């Protein structure tokens, strides 16, 4: 027993004087923070040092590049007018979606053996729904496929969408001629009919704020001005006639060329014979030739 006491006493003295124990410790009581847009965000950071009573405190934000939030006892950039620090806890006033991200609290105690400690805090700024953009054509032909689009790119968390026709919510079932994707905001028709004519609008919603809706837009389902089969058949007949005429014209030209080539090869020529040479010495010509007067 006495031997154990004798061994424990030096061990206790060694631990008390161990340089590893003389280090700064940094932590956060709330490593994940969610706040609504335009409210204050409190990013907690607590630290403890063994020797250094005036450590250096820095806050950084991680993104594509690490940027300083609090450095050299003052705030930088856009945080200069809307942030404060108490101890090592950072408060950002009137946060927006741009403030979302991962922040790092760093405490440097130069007198401690391990003189650097850090803690991370993730900030997520919640944004209520905004008025979505809705794509509804003014008219479409009977029997055509149709897809309506709705999008709210600003809401956090992402919005859930609902379509309305004449102020009545559209719920897709196995019997309905349409399908609805509530996460993508699409309303699809395989084949529209006259009964699908109406006023369409889309509504976006999430858990943060009240739903928002776009202005209702008129969709008309109309008949084709003429029977499409007749139009297609007429167009095909006209195209066939044009092609036939072109072929006939080409054949006629080629036959004319061939005839001219055959006559040239046989030696026959349709060109008149060259005129006789002019008579230069008429007297001599009269002596050698007789004329009948």
From TrEMBL:
Q: Which residues cross the membrane?
A: 228-252
Biological process terms from the Gene Ontology for this record are:
leukocyte cell-cell adhesion
Q: Which Gene3D superfamilies match?
A: Immunoglobulins
What region holds the Ig-like domain? 19-122, 129-220
Q: Decide whether keyword Membrane is in the record.
A: yes
GO terms under cellular component:
cell surface; plasma membrane; protein complex involved in cell adhesion; tight junction
- Keywords of the record: Membrane, Signal, Transmembrane, Transmembrane helix
* Signal sequence range: 1-23
Entry-linked InterPro entries: Ig-like_dom, Ig-like_dom_sf, Ig-like_fold, Ig_sub, Ig_sub2, Ig_V-set, JAM2
Cited Pfam families:
Ig_3, V-set
Protein name (database record)? Junctional adhesion molecule 2b
**UniProt organism field:** Sparus aurata
Gene from which the chain derives: jam2b
């Amino acid at each position: 027993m006495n031997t154990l006491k004798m061994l424990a006493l030096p061990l206790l003295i060694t631990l008390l004087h161990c340089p590893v124990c003389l280090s700064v410790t940094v932590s956060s009581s709330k490593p994940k923070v969610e706040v609504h847009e335009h409210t204050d965000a409190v990013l907690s950071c607590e630290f403890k040092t063994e020797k250094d009573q005036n450590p250096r405190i820095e806050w950084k934000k991680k993104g594509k590049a690490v940027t300083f939030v609090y450095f050299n006892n003052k705030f930088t950039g856009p945080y200069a007018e809307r942030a404060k620090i108490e101890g090592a806890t950072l408060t950002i006033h009137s946060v927006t979606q741009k403030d979302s991200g991962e922040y790092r609290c760093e405490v440097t105690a130069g007198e401690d053996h391990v003189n650097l400690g850090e803690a991370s805090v993730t900030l997520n700024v919640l944004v209520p729904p905004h008025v979505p953009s809705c794509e509804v054509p003014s008219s479409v032909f009977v029997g055509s496929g149709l897809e309506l689009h709705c999008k709210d790119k600003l809401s956090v968390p992402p919005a859930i969408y609902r379509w309305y026709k004449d102020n009545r919510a559209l719920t897709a079932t196995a019997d309905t001629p349409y399908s609805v994707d509530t996460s993508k905001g699409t309303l699809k028709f395989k084949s529209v009919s006259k009964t699908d004519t109406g006023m369409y609008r889309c509504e976006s919603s999430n858990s943060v704020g009240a739903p928002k809706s776009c202005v209702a837009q008129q969709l008309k389902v109309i008949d084709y001005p003429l029977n499409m089969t007749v139009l297609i058949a007429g167009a095909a007949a006209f195209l066939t006639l044009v092609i036939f005429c072109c072929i006939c014209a080409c054949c006629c030209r080629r036959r004319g060329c061939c005839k001219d080539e055959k006559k040239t090869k046989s030696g026959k020529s349709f060109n008149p014979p060259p005129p006789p040479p002019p008579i230069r010495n008429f007297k001599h010509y009269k002596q050698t030739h007789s004329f009948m007067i």
